[in-house]
Design goal:
Length: 480
């Protein structure tokens, strides 16, 4: 193996250069030579893949910490050469070189017809099949028949088409086109709509046409609508034997007749029919009693009838009244002075699971105020405040009247300010009550301020209030 000597040191042979890829010079240090900077003293080596035959992490173990750790490298095997100086190649090396020119390395022994494994299943592909989720905003369109016989717009449209017919044409021209889509109870709304249009004769013709259709009649809903329309317009002919009629007719038809009489103003006929129905053990809807109480309560001569209706209503075990019915009955009882009935209706309303509204609270406060039971009324006001009930104008007006009656100036003034802050405009009676309480307290300046506000509103105080104000000013002047 050829070597080159430089300065007493050996340079690696070309074979070593081919194996290691770099040349190492061993130059002895010179004291006269200038020391190289640190970056040149330890030059960065080129990045080469590590030699798998060398353990790069194995360091020389030493107990002396001052000695730097040195990496142990295995000694390189010397290559064999022939007598002529040529390298002797082994059979494995020759086979590897030949395979490069053949295009493919020899395969390891084994099966050559190996199949590629299938890819792993993806989660979204192995989920079980499901039905498609319905669209949330999709509009459900039912069959055409349901669109007609249950759709109010379609039924009202029938009434409009009937109205557009000529006087000499029959309603069957319009109804025969829709007969396959109509069901029992469909034409009840059409009959009521014809009544609102003032076409009473057309409504009766529609009922007569429905009677000839076996799939539409008999039906209590169409009959009830027709009876109510005729009774309301005083066109219904009562049978001679009402006892027999009430015993054979359905409850819906009787209630429709009573409702029509009430709306038409025939209260005596409604009262007569209710009395006969009670004698025949026929229970009608309690709301009909409430409507009769309200209508009869407007007439001072019918107070005995109202009391009878109240007693009959109190005997009902299956009492079902709406909030409007309860407040209407309470207001009638306040006018009649039946304050105990007002409290009973209020207690029943609470026991039925309903939450009192501002109208119910205001009616009860007005009842206690009219009865001059101011402490009970004040307790209802605090209950109303505790329930965070929003006051309306009638509630403010009743509460101000209560505090004026209690001579509580501070609370009356506070609720008067709240009334204005809520955006309501005081009426004449509110101004009058505030002037009276300020007059009693001797607050003449406040009285003048409210009087000026009343004049700006275009109102005029009554003569009695003005005389009291003049007297108060006169007393104030002479008193000073």
């Amino acid at each position: 193996m050829e070597s080159v000597f430089v300065g007493g040191n050996t340079i690696l042979s070309p074979h070593t250069l081919a194996m290691n890829g770099r040349v190492a010079f061993m130059v002895p240090p010179s004291s006269t030579r200038r020391s190289l900077p640190k970056n040149l003293r330890y030059p960065r080596q080129a990045k080469h893949p590590p030699d798998m035959g060398v353990n790069q992490f194995l360091k020389k173990t030493s107990n002396d910490a001052s000695e730097p750790a040195q990496t142990e490298f295995p000694e390189e095997e010397e290559e064999k050469y022939t007598e002529d100086g040529e390298i002797v190649w082994e059979s494995e090396e020759i086979e590897a070189i030949e395979s490069l020119f053949q295009g493919r390395l020899p395969q390891k022994p084994g099966s050559l017809n190996r199949q590629r494994p299938l890819p792993l299943p993806l989660p979204y592909k192995v989920r079980p099949l499901r039905l498609p989720s319905p669209k949330r905003n999709a509009v459900k369109i039912g069959p055409l028949s349901k669109q007609v016989y249950k759709n109010p717009n379609a039924l009202v449209g029938l009434a409009r088409e009937i109205r557009s017919l000529g006087e000499d044409k029959d309603v069957g021209i319009v109804l025969n086109k829709r007969v396959q889509f109509l069901r029992k109870g469909s034409l009840s709304m059409t009959i009521r709509e014809l009544r609102h249009m003032g076409l009473l004769e057309r409504a009766l013709q529609t009922f007569c046409w429905a009677q000839k259709q076996p799939q539409l009649y008999p039906d209590d809903r169409i009959l009830s609508s027709t009876v109510e329309v005729l009774a309301r317009n005083h066109e219904l002919k009562l049978p001679f034997n009402l006892d027999k009629f009430t015993s054979s007719a359905s409850r819906g038809v009787i209630e429709a007749m009573v409702r029509g009489f009430i709306k038409g103003g025939s209260l005596h006929l409604a009262w007569k029919l209710v009395t006969i129905a009670k004698d025949n053990q026929r229970k009608l809807d309690p709301s009909l009693y409430a409507k009769l109480i309200v209508e009869f309560g407007k007439n001072p001569d019918k107070h005995m009838v109202v009391i009878t209706l109240l007693e009959e209503l109190g005997e009902r075990e299956d009492l079902k009244l709406s909030q409007q019915d309860c407040t209407s009955i309470m207001k009638v009882c306040i006018r009649l002075g039946k304050f105990e009935v007002v409290k009973s209706v209020y207690d029943w309303f609470r026991q039925s699971g309903h939450d009192p509204t501002v109208v119910v609270y205001t009616t009860l406060i007005h009842s206690h105020y009219s009865e001059k039971r101011y402490k009970e009324a004040l307790a209802v006001v605090w209950e109303m405040e505790a329930s965070n009930c929003l006051f309306d104008f009638p509630a403010y007006r009743v509460v101000i009247k209560l505090f004026v009656a209690l001579n509580d100036l501070a609370r009356a003034a506070r609720y008067f300010s709240k009334l204005k802050e809520a955006g309501f405009t005081p009426t004449y009676d509110v101004y009058r009550d505030m002037i009276r309480i300020y007059m009693v307290s001797g607050r003449l300046a406040k009285c003048r301020e409210i009087c000026k506000e009343v004049e700006m509103r275009g109102l005029k105080l009554e003569q009695e209030t003005m005389s009291h104000l003049l007297q108060l000013e006169r007393d104030k002047r002479f008193g000073d």
